[in-house]
Amino acid sequence: MATIRLYRETDLEEVRRICVRTANSGQDSTPMTEMPDLVPDIFLVPYTVHDPDLCFVVEEDGRAVGYIVGCADTVSFATWFRDEWAPQAGRKYPQPIESPKTWDEMWVYCLHFNSYPRMVMPGIEGYPSHLHIDLAPEYHRMGLGRELMLTYLDALKAAGVPGVHACVSAKNPGGLKYYEGMGFTPIDVPDPAPVVWLGRSTDTRDLTEPKVAAGTTD
Length: 218
Ligand SMILES: CC(C)(COP(=O)(O)OP(=O)(O)OC[C@H]1O[C@@H](n2cnc3c(N)ncnc32)[C@H](O)[C@@H]1OP(=O)(O)O)[C@@H](O)C(=O)NCCC(=O)NCCS
Hints:
Pfam families: Acetyltransf_1. By secondary structure, this protein is of the alpha+beta class.
């Protein structure tokens, strides 16, 4: 049976693999990269270092089959990412080039230069947290994404964080439907492309309380 628990360092290799298998707008990015650590070193591993209390996995038969990771405060996270994480993690990769063309060149460039301005967007003030969620493809549409999100929102609420946002590729219809189903609504940010910015409150009553049918009386 699948269970949700906090991330542990021993999950690292499994969650890195899941990240790569879902990084191309929800699809497998394995054929696109010669550096399989690169995308996880941007969108997964730094959260487990900076905000380990907000990183959860779904475990089945002793291994992680999905995860949700995030940060309580995007401005603090982005500052740390720019000043500490990127210089250290960047040593593993070639120097960024000015006009990246390949998948790997693009993400090396993002790791070094693009993360802070793309993370700290005007419009996210009411949604200080942000997150990334990915499940191994064979575990989609089983309700595990819902359970992971509820776990994450409860942890944020307990930490006093009022809202959370996420960025989803406009080319990921399943991801967009998921966030819509989880009560996220669009956030107005300048120059959002190529992603859609979505946010919601950490109050989960809309997701957990039974809906009363309109027109019923007692
Ligand atoms: C997106 C993802 C995390 C969703 O997790 P999941 O376990 O498949 O989703 P759930 O089964 O918990 O669905 C929760 C709700 O989301 C909505 N939903 C999820 N996937 C959907 C889809 N493909 N189409 C329509 N609605 C969807 C539904 O409202 C669903 O509720 P319901 O089952 O009662 O109808 C998972 O599919 C995934 O890892 N995808 C690849 C990576 C990715 O796209 N990550 C997110 C974008 S950054």
